[in-house]
Write a structure and sequence with these properties.
The protein is mainly alpha-helical. 40% of the residues lie in helices and 4% in strands.
């Protein structure tokens, strides 16, 4: 699957040199087939083609420059940047009083491993897709809880983002955004969280299924925020377990990102 995606991306990028409207339309049709895109009307399709053409031009100009990272016509290429931000981003501003404290991790700074991959240790579930719902905060929270549960019990269980979207409403706002800290507090106060299988993700807001609140597949008793700008404690935290991270994806390059890294990619805003 990854190989096929790479071929498709390479094909699409090679066609960016075409400039006529017919060439763009041909490229758009190829892209629609690759991504399984269909539209309800010709009017909508024309609108998406216009957004696609604009993103095409943006990707081409970026990749022709001297940059250490590459953009491509990915699955979001038919969205305007405002649409992407409205439908895919959902991290709220940080609360005023984060629970920041010195992390008590066994060992000294020099004992931290040079690298660690929690995927290889079986502590990370499969990649999930939030869809057109600004619930990234719920996925970040469940990912960290899934990991620490695996480390503590040896069992990797996929947890319910939908429960957080629908039921964690004291401070978070479902598909309209939220923050991981409040999600952790919700799980603590609820004495646990249900599984993804029992309370599946629907990528939309809905009524809390209160009977499922009593199904506690996994629970936590506390959480701690890594102090900002403290690389040592971040290294200690990541060495102990996967952490919950918030990324600022408001830059247009993030929407069309493909691969690579650079110092100008200042998208990570908080942990």
């Amino acid at each position: 699957m990854n190989f096929l995606y790479t071929l498709a991306a390479t094909l699409l990028l090679s066609l960016l040199s075409l400039s006529s409207s017919s060439d763009i339309s041909q490229l758009f049709e190829t892209w629609c087939k690759e991504h399984g895109k269909t539209y309800t009307s010709q009017e909508e399709k024309s609108y998406r083609l216009k957004a696609f053409e604009d993103n095409c031009d943006f990707v081409k100009k970026h990749n022709e420059g001297n940059s250490s990272y590459t953009l491509s016509l990915n699955a979001f290429a038919d969205l305007t940047h405002q649409e992407f931000k409205s439908s895919r981003l959902g991290l709220s501003a940080a609360p005023l009083n984060l629970d920041q404290r010195n992390l008590k991790v066994t060992g000294v700074f020099g004992d931290i491993p040079a690298s660690i991959d929690w995927r290889k240790k079986g502590a990370v579930t499969n990649v999930k897709d939030q869809g057109s719902c600004g619930a990234c905060w719920s996925f970040s929270a469940t990912g960290a809880i899934e990991a620490i549960n695996k480390i503590a019990t040896g069992s990797l269980v996929s947890l319910s983002e939908q429960e957080l979207v629908e039921c964690d409403r004291s401070f978070n706002s479902g598909c309209e955004g939220g923050l991981m800290d409040y999600a952790f507090k919700f799980v603590i106060n609820n004495n646990g969280i249900d599984t993804e299988e029992d309370y599946p993700y629907r990528a939309q807001d809905g009524t809390c299924k209160k009977e499922k609140l009593k199904r506690h597949a996994v629970t936590i008793d506390k959480y701690v925020d890594v102090p900002p700008n403290n690389e040592k404690q971040l290294l200690q935290a990541v060495a102990a377990q996967p952490v919950s991270v918030g990324i600022c994806g408001s830059e247009r390059a993030f929407q069309m990102y493909s691969k690579g890294m650079g110092q100008k990619m200042e998208w990570i805003t908080g942990l």
